[in-house]
Design brief:
Blueprint (H helix, E strand, L loop, with lengths): L5 E5 L3 H13 L3 E5 L2 H6 L8 E5 L7 H10 L6 E5 L4 H9 L4 E4 L4 H12 L11
Parallel strand pairs: 1-2, 1-3, 3-4, 4-5
Length: 131
Amino acid sequence: MADRPIVAIVDDDKSIRHAISDLLKAAGFQALAFQDAESFLASPDRALVDCLVADMRMPGMSGLKLHEALAAAGQAIPTIIMTAHPEETTQVRVSAAGIQGYLVKPFVPDELLDCLAALLGKPGSGPIPKS
């Protein structure tokens, strides 16, 4: 893992990608943002990623299917799934796939940071300054 863990954000909503990217950078992570699963899979940077934060529902491949495709390719990455449509069956499927994090949108920044800390440990820069 790099000095500053690299987190990939995969979400078809541009505002979500930007907000999470800004949050992660402020918290001491490196952030890579992708508009869909296919662009993440095609990226040469995917091999550098320490954690994946992906939306459950996206056009094309879902966040769950992305996690499964990576695992099948031998690149099991700690994953956090986000959803604006919480359903018990979805949470069961996510858990059964071995996904370690599940967040319901909207969530507060600390929920995501706590998930990342549990999966990766905290980056060296400490907590986000409160404004």
